[in-house]
Amino acid sequence: MKVHIHDNKKIENDTLIIGVPEHLNQLETIEVVNENINEKLKTLKQNHIISTNIGTVSTTLFSLKEKYVKLVTVGLGNVKLTNHSDYLKVFGNLFQYLKQERITKASLLFDTFQAHELTREAIAEILGQQSIQSIYQFDNYKTNKSAPYHIDLDLSTEKTDDILRSVEQGQSIASAINLARDFSQMPPNILTPSYYGEMVQKHFEGTQVSVDIKDSETLQSEGFGLIHAVGKGSHNGPSVITITYNGGKAEDAPIALVGKGITYDSGGYSIKSKTGMQTMKYDMCGSANVIAMIEAARKLELKINIVGVIAAAENMVNEAAMKPDDVFTALSGESVEVLNTDAEGRLVLGDAVFYANQFQPKLILDFATLTGAAVAALGDDKAAVFNHNADTTLQHILEYARQMDEFVFELPMTSTEQSLIRNSDVADLVNHTNGQGKALFAATFINHFAGETPHMHFDIAGPATTNKASHKGPKGPTGYLIPTIVSWMRHLK
Ligand code: BES
Ligand code: MN
Ligand code: ZN
Asked: Which residue numbers delimit the Cytosol aminopeptidase domain (predicted)?
């Protein structure tokens, strides 16, 4: 979307977009081309031609002086209560409507989009975000691609610089989300671990973000025994992709963002059922979202240091693949017994988290489509978070999640799980329990490798993808937690 901002009230386009509150008296007097249109809007509402329900888009022919325009209204509900989530719906529905109607030019009266709880800048940012996020589509592998959609939007408002900047910031966050979606949608025969690394390198080429890749041989020789064990069952060997963004002072400790990048999870010898295997290309969503968080930090020029670590591997079956009862030595030097090869995420993340800790981060966050158990506990639209030594940050992140319309709920790690992860007859640790509490077990296994460094683990097995289109976009990968983590990072001092 190209946005132009005018501070005049001259409507030069054939489509006019207005936000309409439930109580139309809350609408400031709207003057367009020297005509007060409030009374006309009231009549349209009384006649049920336009709706003021939150996010409802209505359209009608409208006469402005001697000219007719297509009027598009979006309901804002009671603007004393309208919040961030509501505005996602308002602008998501609006842009999806504009795209569906292939409207390529429109004038939007920005000042009609009010909310007592949100600043003008916050509203502008959501507008920018939804102008890109809500109309995402992925047709790279279709022969007949739908034509790219662009709209030239004239925003009429005052103090135009702040507003334009906020729109652009929203667009930066949304293009990061769509970048994560693009990676996640790629078919697993194409997005192998090594190609993933190449793509990430190519994406950040020429920016201040640097990308380092360790291939399978390097991983083996440097002692990444768990990542190597998972990846050696495939001809497409594993990679560790390290992404560094230094926007802060040289002496500031980085935050570490670690992502599960299983480009395909067949389950290995503990093989998945034919229906359980479908969609397992999405087992790298955690890592795609980490790439997006760093991309957003770069575009927003955040003054912090970040080290991203992506553990990429294909969990497959060949004669070299790991099998139940095997024992491997982790990067930490500890031995791990594999009782279930489908519990591969915690293995790769164990090594990745241990490696991330070498950068002496002040905090490690990891993101993973880790367990079906987290989905059984919370449903498929909520993330689970586990925290060790990071109580204050957890409270902040929970608050940002609430503001950003994302669901995150804390689950515990206790002495019960601490002893379960050590319950091996032959090795120091074991990757699987046959008992209950499988999400907690997996989290505790990963946390073990963070030592005493503050650590949070996010299990996004459910919400990483959705099978329902919404105002946030089509079905498929969601970029879950990118908005939450980016807004938390923006407020880090
Ligand atoms: N990638 C899966 C988890 C998953 C399941 C993600 C469904 C998205 C949707 C993970 O590697 C896995 O297979 N987990 C197993 C662990 C079990 C073997 C202990 C699970 O949750 O069933
Ligand atoms: Mn698995
Ligand atoms: Zn997996």
From this structure: 340-347
Kind of pairing between the strands at 363-368 and 455-459: parallel
Residue at 147: amino acid letter: A
Q: How far apart are CA 483 and CA 176, in angstroms?
A: 10
Residue 384 has what pLDDT?
Answer: 99
- Which ligand has the shortest distance to the CA of 338? 1
Query: Which string of b and e fits 383-395 if b means at least 16 CB within 10 Å?
Result: bbbbbbebeebbe
- Cα separation, 464 vs 279, in Å, equals 11
Is position 272 annotated as part of the catalytic site?
yes
Neighbour tally for 10: CB within 10 Å: 11
3-state secondary structure of 117: coil
Q: What is the pLDDT of residues 233-280, one digit of tens each?
A: 999 999 999 999 999 999 999 999 999 999 999 999 999 999 999 999
Classify residue 341 as exposed, middle or buried by CB count within 10 Å of its CB (0-12, 13-18, 19+): buried
Over range 17-40, report the average pLDDT: 86
DSSP state of 317: -
Could you give phi then psi for residue 344, rounded to 5 degrees? -90, -25
Question: What is the value of pTM for the model shown?
Answer: 0.97
pLDDT of residue 32: 80
In angstroms, rounded to a whole number, what is the distance separating the alpha carbons of residues 83 and 164? 21
Half-sphere exposure of 467 (CA within 13 A, CB side): 3
Give Cβ neighbours of residue 359 (< 8 Å, ≥ 6 apart): 254, 256, 307
- The amino acid present at 399, given as its one-letter code, is E
d(C-alpha 218, C-alpha 198), whole Å: 16
The answer to whether residues 382 and 408 touch, using CB atoms and an 8 Å cutoff, is yes
Which of 266, 275, 371 for mutating ligand 1's site (highest number of atoms within 8 Å of CB)?
Answer: 371
Domains and CATH numbers, the chain: 2-155 (3.40.220.10), 173-490 (3.40.630.10)
CA distance 69 to 306: 49
Residue 279's φ and ψ, nearest 5 degrees, are 75, 5
Tokens of 172: 């930066």
Atom of ligand 1 minimally distant from the CA of 439: 21
